[in-house]
Specification:
By secondary structure, the chain is of the alpha+beta class. The protein has seven helices and 16 strands. It has two domains: 63 residues, no CATH class; 211 residues, Immunoglobulin-like. It starts with a strand and ends with a strand.
């Protein structure tokens, strides 16, 4: 005797067995299943089973790959966080001293040290050249005035005064030609050191006072330098400046990488010394640059 695979009751030999979803059921269960819509429910159960299986397979694959998938009602794309790079800066430090003719060394506290841009505009250069020419004109005026004084009061001065005067005036005129030629070749941007060299070459080797055999004063010695007309270049290109401390030391920090000139001019009754040193500042680099006779660009 067969049994109903739904209710478990026996199906008599004279009763007709029914089949429901490939299973043998009795007449009563077949009628009830058909009336209650068991066919639709069975299909829904099959579909639901397939969906669950697919989801489980996807979850298992995600776990094996090291993550669990997340589902959201709206996909969200996050923009990457911007990385801000801190500018890398450099540093320059050093000490300042001079060595005199007798071999003695003197520290230079209070020396103004300046960091300059490597180039300057042509108009500023033209102004520096003009100031140098004005200095020449002043020297010549003072010279002529002194010549007149000597001729009126001392009968023309010591022997050789007229010859020395002529040589001095010839030198002044030659120095002016240096500036005139340089002014003809002005560019939009000029190298700072090249401008200084032109001004230095335009400075007379002697003052009008020495022409007459008189020891020059401090003011006269100070005039025999390119520092005076060069000051307009310094004012225009300075990016950092400071005075050396009591131990004659200086330090510039947080300097953007690039090319610079280190400038310092020292004057005393014994003469003048100018430093104009090219430097290359690199990222996160500390340079040491001492200021002494060996680093001078001009000594007078």
């Amino acid at each position: 005797m067969e049994k109903c695979q739904n209710c478990g009751s026996g199906i008599g030999e004279l009763e007709t067995p029914y089949v429901w979803n490939n299973r043998v059921v009795c007449r009563v269960c077949h009628s009830r299943l058909k009336t209650n819509g068991g066919e639709g429910k069975g299909m829904r159960m099959i579909v639901a089973g397939v969906v669950v299986a697919v989801l489980l397979v996807g979850l298992g694959a995600a776990v094996m790959l090291g993550g669990v998938p997340r589902w959201t009602t709206k996909s969200k794309v996050e923009s990457p966080t911007a990385v801000i790079k801190t500018p890398k800066r450099g540093r320059i430090e050093g000490s300042a001293w001079i060595t005199r003719n007798d071999g003695a060394t003197n520290l230079l506290p209070g020396l103004r040290v300046q960091l300059l841009k490597p180039s300057v505009d042509g108009e500023t250069v033209r102004l520096a050249y003009t100031n140098a020419m004005k200095g020449h004109l002043k020297n010549m005026e003072e010279h002529y005035a002194e010549m007149a004084r000597w001729q009126n009061n001392i009968g023309g001065g010591p022997p050789g005064t007229a010859a020395r005067s002529k040589l001095y005036l010839q030198e002044i005129m030659a120095k002016e030609e240096v500036i005139v030629d340089a002014a003809k070749n002005l560019h939009h941007q000029q190298d700072v050191a090249e401008v200084y060299d032109v001004l230095e070459k335009s400075v007379p080797s002697t003052s009008w006072v020495t022409t007459f055999g008189v020891s020059p004063s401090f003011a006269d010695m100070a005039a025999l330098t390119a520092a005076i007309p060069f000051q307009v270049i310094v004012d225009k290109t300075t990016v950092m400046e400071m005075d050396t401390g009591v131990e004659a030391k200086y330090e510039f920090s947080d300097i953007p990488a690039g090319r610079y000139y280190l400038y310092a001019h020292f004057e005393s009754t014994g003469g003048n010394i100018t430093r104009l040193i090219p430097l290359e500042v690199a990222n996160r680099t500390s340079l040491r640059q001492d200021l002494h006779n060996g680093t001078a660009r001009a000594i007078r």
